[in-house]
Design brief:
two-stranded antiparallel sheet; alpha+beta; globular; 12 helices
């Protein structure tokens, strides 16, 4: 499954509109199941999308905004052959009619607005026969190949990135369900297993979860290998991050990550989607003592010195 399709929340409408100031034409808007059909039609053009960012919808959810070249979209739709009974065919016909009008008005780009599907947090689903955390090496290797070893959340590439199942079901080995996560982000995928001392949930609307993950990496590296000044600065940053637990506790009544994990586990699929939306500005700050992983602390300064000498000796 493409990244574009994976991050669409289909409970709300998908819209398309021409990027022309002086052209008064109603935008196209589709609810289920037409919005899923439209997304499937557009997905093959994902490499041509220009992501403009996110906007907040008045109904309380966030939307991704993309620009798509009109000419490329028209050519793509023209080449498609779909059966008349297919929902995508009805959407294609409607879209082509609008595109013809827009092109006559010299429209070069269309604006696609799609509700964003958040899945910042997930839980370890317990399935009978899968009590062990160990996964077949071949499955782990397949996940690394499919993702190029890139963490689903922060984009970090490392050999230590671990296998995750995007729908939390360890029995679903479909390619689109396999991902990897770095040692920092991995804890957000097992929220239900964390205790009160393992971390805190904080409210940080100013920072993306991926940025916080990278910041935590820098903090850990400074605390383990930095000089006195760097260690002091890292501690101040960590205290600033964890200090935002107050907002979480004031609104939710707790900052315990395990309690949020239990809420996600016990919720129905529909309620879980709503909860993920409400948690979109929340971040897990993991206890640094759990993050003493070689992938985070890095080689010692002595190791770097030895590697530098070896490099110079070979050249």
């Amino acid at each position: 499954m493409s990244v574009f399709l994976r991050h669409i929340l289909l409970r709300w409408p998908l819209t398309l509109a021409p990027c022309t100031e002086d052209f008064d034409d109603p935008l196209l808007s589709w609810d289920e199941p037409q919005n899923a059909a439209c997304a499937a039609l557009l997905a093959p053009l994902e490499s041509l999308f220009y992501h403009c960012g996110k906007v907040a919808h008045e109904n309380g959810y966030d939307c991704d905004v993309y620009l798509i070249p009109v000419d490329s979209l028209c050519d793509h739709l023209e080449r498609l052959t779909l059966p008349p009974s297919d929902v995508r065919e009805a959407v294609r016909v409607t879209l082509q009619k609008s595109l013809r009008r827009w092109r006559q008005n010299s429209t070069e780009m269309v604006r696609l607005t799609v509700p964003h599907r958040y899945q910042t947090f997930s839980t370890e689903q317990q399935v009978w026969g899968h009590e062990s955390e160990a996964h077949p090496p071949a499955l782990c290797q397949r996940a690394r190949e499919l993702t190029a070893g890139r963490c689903d959340a922060c984009g970090c590439v490392h050999d230590a990135n671990a296998l995750i199942f995007r729908d939390d079901n360890p029995e679903n080995h479909a390619d689109e369900n396999l991902g990897v996560s770095c040692p920092v982000c991995h804890f957000s995928h097992r929220l239900n297993t964390l205790g009160a001392n393992d971390g805190v949930m904080v409210y940080l609307p100013e920072l993306a979860a991926a940025d916080v993950s990278l910041l935590l990496r820098a903090v850990i590296l400074a605390r383990t290998q930095g000089n006195a000044r760097q260690k002091e600065g890292a501690t101040q940053i960590l205290n600033w991050l964890t200090g935002h637990r107050k907002e979480t506790e004031a609104f939710w009544g707790t900052s315990h990550p395990g309690e949020f994990g239990q809420a996600l586990m016990q919720a129905s699929l529909l309620i879980r989607e709503d909860l993920q939306q409400r948690l979109r500005h929340m971040v897990l700050i993991v206890n640094p003592t759990l993050l003493n992983h070689p992938a985070l602390t890095g080689p010692s300064p002595e190791t770097w010195s030895d590697r530098l000498k070896k490099y110079h000796s070979q050249n």
